[in-house]
Structures are given as structure tokens and as C-alpha cells.
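sorry for the late reply, my laptop died twice this morning and i had to redo everyting from scratch. anyway the thing you sent over, i finally got around to it. pasting the sequence first so we're on the same page, its 125 residues, then the predicted structure underneath. double check i copied it right bc i was rushing
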Amino acid sequence: QVQLVESGGGLVQAGDSQRLSCADSGGTFSRRAMAWFRQAPGKEREIVAAASSSSSATYYSGSVKGRFTISRDNAKNTVYLQMDRLKPADTGVYYCAACKVSWASTLVDIDYVYWGQGAQDTGTS
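ok and here's the structure:
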């Protein structure tokens, strides 16, 4: 059973950095692509970043490219999202998600079968 537990988040100032972590206890982490999604207040959930199982492929949405970095440590079954130069528009609940395969180029949420509970709102002031 895959269980994803996020940590990190909280209130920060615009321009600050923050790192989210997501630990997978299911034992299949190294075989799955992982992604971070974000849901801003009143908006639909959107993919922010994704990394293939081996990290050979990554994706960033246009709004975060150059500011956010997704990384993973397969030995620790953990995926990270380093967020730099945060903006008020980055506010939302961040979810990590595990893909059903090693990489899904479609980058849509239906390809992700396991979800974390959501990091606490990351609000920028």
C-alpha cells in the first residue's frame, strides 16, 4: 500500500524559499514517476513539476520554471520540491502524487494513482 506523506510548507514572505518533502512508504517509489500538484483557492488542481522514476526526465509548468526544482532520492523514497523566489501566485495546497508508471508524458492527474494529504497552505504575503 503506497502512502505519501508531505511535510514542509507554511506561511512565507514573497521572495523567500521553501522546500516540500514527500515520503513514500509503499516500497514501489523507485519505479514510479512522481509529481507535485498545486491547488490554489478557487482554482482547479494543476501540475507544477514532475520527475521520472530515474530523474532522467523532468517537467515544470511555465509559471514555476526557473524557480522550482523537483528532485528525488530513491534510496530514501522521498521526493522534494524546492521553491525559490516565491510569489503570491504560488499560494495553494501542494500535493505530491505517485504515477502508475515510470513516466507519463501526458502530465495529467489521472495518471497519478496515489496522493498525499496535501501540504499545509503555502501562502506568501
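The chain has a mean pLDDT of 92.
thats about all i looked at so far, will dig more tmrw
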